[in-house]
């Protein structure tokens, strides 16, 4: 199949380049980064799609600076809301599938358990509102789509929570981490592999493929808080021989109210993945699996 990937330079996009390659026909994977495609330029996006004539469009690009979005609302809206709508319109026009990634931030975090795809959205931030509008534009386009909500993403490329915690632990003897927000740390590699497998199932579904179009929650199994996550990262690093100034017992658990962030975060970021698992026949591993693999790689001699 011919695949057009946006966001190749990000954590998720980098993983997708490898996971999607086996699905593509020879020379059939075109991966674009910021230098190749400006998501704030609708005309350029349309030209990219029409030039490549893909069978699948995968949009791993997004405006993800959650706090900065509060003051850069126009840019966040262009990238997170308008661009997905443009890609969906073009996908509908050429008969392609659109894979797009959304976020737990479309919810307000007040639910007592994991969120279902059918739960009402109520974003707390500009970032969450723009991502929700992007979802709505995709659904309204009529394009066949996989709209995959996830959260707490980390990967080998770029900055992320495990890397930040390790850096802090090498520089300080103690620091604070929020303990009253919960979620499931999800590897970019897990998202990429699950996406590829889902697309493979769609390709083999024949006339039933359109029935697979829709919104799905996709995240690692299990749950943790940011504080427990940080402690786990440091314990794993120590087990691999890392020399740290801060140890897990020196990490203080604090409420989110102690942090003066510009954007409000949901207290509960848990997503129920039963629909995705049942539809595509996939088991999703516990969040510790990929975290442990990343830590082993980051601290290896």
Description:
- By secondary structure, the chain is an alpha/beta fold.
- The chain is built from 9 helices and 12 strands.
- A 6-stranded parallel beta sheet has the order 2-1-3-4-5-10, with helices on both faces. It has a two-stranded parallel ribbon with strand order 6-9. A two-stranded parallel ribbon has the order 7-12.
- Helix 4 (126-141) links the parallel strand 4 (97-103) and strand 5.
Shape: globular
**Which structural class is indicated by helix and strand composition?**
alpha/beta
Which stretches are poorly predicted, pLDDT < 50 over at least 5 residues? none
Strand order of the largest sheet: 2-1-3-4-5-10
Roughly what fraction of the amino acids lie in strands? 5-15%
Percent of residues in helices: 25-40%
Oligomer: single chain
Please work out how many helical segments DSSP would assign.
9
How many whole angstroms does the radius of gyration measure?
19 Å
The largest β sheet comes out as:
6 strands, parallel
Written as H for each helix and E for each strand, in order along the chain, the element string is EHEHEHEHEEHEEEHEEHEHH
**How many strand elements?**
12
Can you give the mean pLDDT? Answer: 95
Q: Kindly, what is the distance between the CA atoms of the first and last residues, rounded to a whole number of angstroms?
A: 41 Å
């Amino acid at each position: 199949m011919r695949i057009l990937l946006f966001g190749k330079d990000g954590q998720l996009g980098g993983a997708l380049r490898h996971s999607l390659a086996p699905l593509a026909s020879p020379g059939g994977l075109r991966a674009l980064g910021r230098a190749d495609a400006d998501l704030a330029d609708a005309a350029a996006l349309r030209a990219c799609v029409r030039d490549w004539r893909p069978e699948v469009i995968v949009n791993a690009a997004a405006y993800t600076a959650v706090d900065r979005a509060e003051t850069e609302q126009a840019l966040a809206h262009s990238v997170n809301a308008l661009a997905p709508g443009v890609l969906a319109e073009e996908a509908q026009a050429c008969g392609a599938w659109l894979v797009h990634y959304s976020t737990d931030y479309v919810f307000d975090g007040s639910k007592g358990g994991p969120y279902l795809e059918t739960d009402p959205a109520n974003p707390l931030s500009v970032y969450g509102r723009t991502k929700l509008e992007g979802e709505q534009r995709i659904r309204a386009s009529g394009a066949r789509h996989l709209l995959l909500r996830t959260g707490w993403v980390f990967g080998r490329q770029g900055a992320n929570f495990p890397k930040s915690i390790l850096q802090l632990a090498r520089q300080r003897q103690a620091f604070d981490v929020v303990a009253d927000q919960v979620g499931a740390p999800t590897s970019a590699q897990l998202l990429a592999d699950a996406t590829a497998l889902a697309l493979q199932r769609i390709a083999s579904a024949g006339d039933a493929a359109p029935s697979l179009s829709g919104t799905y929650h996709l995240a690692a199994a299990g749950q943790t808080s940011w504080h427990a996550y940080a402690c786990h990262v440091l314990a794993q690093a120590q087990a691999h021989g890392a020399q740290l100034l801060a140890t897990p017992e020196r990490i203080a658990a604090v409420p989110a109210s102690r942090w003066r962030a510009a954007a409000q975060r949901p207290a509960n970021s848990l997503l129920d993945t039963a629909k995705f698992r049942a539809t595509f026949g996939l088991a999703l591993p516990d969040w510790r699996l990929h975290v442990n693999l990343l830590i082993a790689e980051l601290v290896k001699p």
